[in-house]
Amino acid sequence: MAFGRRRQAEEPAEGPEPTDEETGNAPAEDAADDEAPETAAAEEGGPWDSEDDYPELQRLDFGSLLIPVASGLGFQVNFEATQVDDEGNPLDGRPVAVLVQYEQSALQLQAFAAPKRSGIWDDVRRETARDIEEDANGQTQEQEGPFGTELLAMVPAALTDEVLAEMPQEVREQLPAEYIEQGWAPQVIRFIGVDGPRWFLQGVVQGAAVQDEEQFQILEDVFRNIVVVRGEAPMPPRELLELRIPKEFSEASAEDEEEKVETFNPFERGPEITEVR
After folding, report:
1. Quick one: DSSP state of residue 4?
2. Could you check whether the bond before residue 47 is cis, i.e. omega within 30 degrees of 0?
3. Least confident of 58-62, 123-127, 161-165, 195-199
4. Integer-rounded Cα radius of gyration of the chain
5. Residue 3 lies in a domain
6. Whole-angstrom Cα distance, residue 99 to residue 264?
7. 230 found inside a domain
8. Is residue 9 a part of any domain in this protein?
């Protein structure tokens, strides 16, 4: 592999176990004798379920995700267009992910429904690795992290004229000449996941925090202190838990907006993530 790792994870058994979707069996989410999976971070604390006795912190309410606020953090909501005009411009949309930004790093967050009897991170991790290797011509490897097994991926990122124009000059000047000539550069992405009681939380780390432990520590603390609000409504496994815009986004005044939250164009895409299917 062309990029570093901390510790080799155990190799997964050959051939993933068939899921309920593959066998056609209905998920036994509400069976009385089923036990919710323990989270990988259970011994050290969160991420937390809304029914847990979690520590009181200032958090932004994104509906299914309560995300802690700290100095230096910026927040962006990524939208998926549900209506477009004749030219393809978005008219309406729904929030599908929350992006937490810190210095040169970003953490993209999504929560999904999961069966009560089992977690889905093992399957999602294998599928994500397969998609990256087969569809994106990338490389992947597993490593152990603070929340259990992670997936580290390296994918080619296009360096179009538009991307280069938006890139800070000091970053552009540091790009090797061969990257600009070939029109792409390797991009390293770190996928972390935690299975909770009837939910799955995924974080996608990009930027300096992939390998910079100081910046990753900030995003790790954010991830660890997230509260997931699953709700009681039955949902098929892997369905995205509903997100909403916090009231602070509209209430923050221009003077204190930077100290509370940073808002962005809602249809501006953040880092690409692999869809949980």
Report:
1. -
2. yes
3. 161-165
4. 19
5. no
6. 11
7. yes
8. no
What are the residue ranges of helices labelled H in 56-209? Answer: 121-135, 161-166, 169-174, 177-182
- Segment 34-51, tens digit of pLDDT: 444 554 444 458 999 999
Residue-wise pLDDT for 221-263, tens only, equals 999 999 999 999 999 999 999 999 998 876 654 445 454 444 3
For the purposes of burial, counting CB atoms within 10 Å of the CB of 204, is it exposed (0-12), middle (13-18) or buried (19 or more)? buried
Q: Where are the beta strands (DSSP E) in the chain?
A: 48-49, 59-61, 65-68, 73-84, 90-102, 105-113, 139-145, 148-158, 184-196, 199-207, 227-228
When divided into structural domains, the chain yields a total of 1
**Owning domain of residue 61:** 30-83+91-260
Q: Is 160 inside a domain boundary?
A: yes
Q: What are phi and psi for residue 64, nearest 5 degrees? A: -80, -10
User: Can you give the pTM of this predicted structure?
Assistant: 0.74
Which token pair is 230? 């699953």
